[in-house]
Automatic annotation (TrEMBL):
It holds the Pfam family Lactamase_B. Residues 26-217 form the Metallo-beta-lactamase domain. This is MBL fold metallo-hydrolase. SUPFAM superfamilies: Metallo-hydrolase/oxidoreductase. CDD domains: metallo-hydrolase-like_MBL-fold. InterPro entries: Metallo-B-lactamas, NDM-1-like, RibonucZ/Hydroxyglut_hydro. Transmembrane segments: none annotated. It comes from Streptomyces marokkonensis.
Length: 241
């Protein structure tokens, strides 16, 4: 028996498209439902959080998640990925180089620094494997009655930023942490600040003025918000047009 978006606690962004805001780090997970397949966008910060998302997706759709898109390789977005055994996993090209043994150790350490239980972080990091499908440029997924575009518009927030565009009325764009609403955009040591504004230009060109943009953290925003954040980032990092 399936449940409605409202009953599940998820927010319906467009027909067949929803998102939820996970606790602690306010990380977004997205869900796109086709007639033949189900796509999840980002997997949460632990195996238990991934399992929660898997169960909620099943309750909402009546089917298992068949595809998983990881927007970038930060712990709060990827450490739940191993909970989706059997799903086709996508990431930006080069993401596999981050998820080596050394990279997984850095993810584990970063998660612990941010407050995740050490044993929980270690378990999730050990189970994590690189995405099977590396997206360079654009990749169209056919979910049955609905085509979804995976677009590698970065680098910016990281060197491996993947966005998800869902055509419809309205069009929905899952931005990952290229866009943040609940706080200032975070530029860690793996960010590429000089190219971040250009990544947002590409994001806006793909989504257009009327799309609903879903940040990696925070409330759904519009094109004007993304454009304003682009100008803030350009000023912050001294990037000229």
């Amino acid at each position: 028996m399936t449940v409605t978006w409202e009953e599940s606690g998820w927010e319906q962004v467009a027909p067949g498209v929803g998102r939820c805001r996970l606790p602690v780090w306010d990380c977004t997970a997205g869900l796109v439902v086709g007639t033949d397949a189900v796509l999840l966008v980002d997997a949460g910060s632990s195996l238990s959080e991934g399992a929660r998302l898997r169960a909620e997706a099943r309750a909402l759709t009546g089917r298992h998640v068949t595809h998983l898109a990881l927007t970038h390789p930060h712990f709060d977005h990827v450490l739940g990925a191993a909970a989706f055994a059997g799903a086709e996993v996508f990431g930006a090209v080069g993401m596999e180089t981050v998820l080596t043994a050394r990279g997984r150790e850095e993810l584990r350490a970063d998660a612990v620094r941010h407050g995740l239980d050490a044993r929980t972080a270690e378990e999730a990091a050990d189970a994590l494997t690189p995405p099977r499908h590396a997206v360079s440029g654009e990749w169209t997924l056919d979910l049955g009655g609905r085509q979804v575009l995976l677009a590698n518009v970065g680098p910016g927030h990281t060197a491996h930023d993947l966005t998800v565009l869902v055509p419809g009325d309205p069009e929905v764009v899952f931005c990952g942490d290229l866009v943040e609403e609940s706080g200032e955009p975070q530029a860690g040591p793996d960010a590429v600040p000089s190219q971040w504004p250009a990544a947002l230009d590409r994001l806006l060109a793909l989504g257009g003025e009327d799309a609903r943009y879903v940040p990696g953290h925070g409330a759904v925003v519009d094109a004007a918000f993304v454009r304003a954040q682009r100008e803030v980032l350009a000023g912050r990092f001294g990037v000229s047009d």
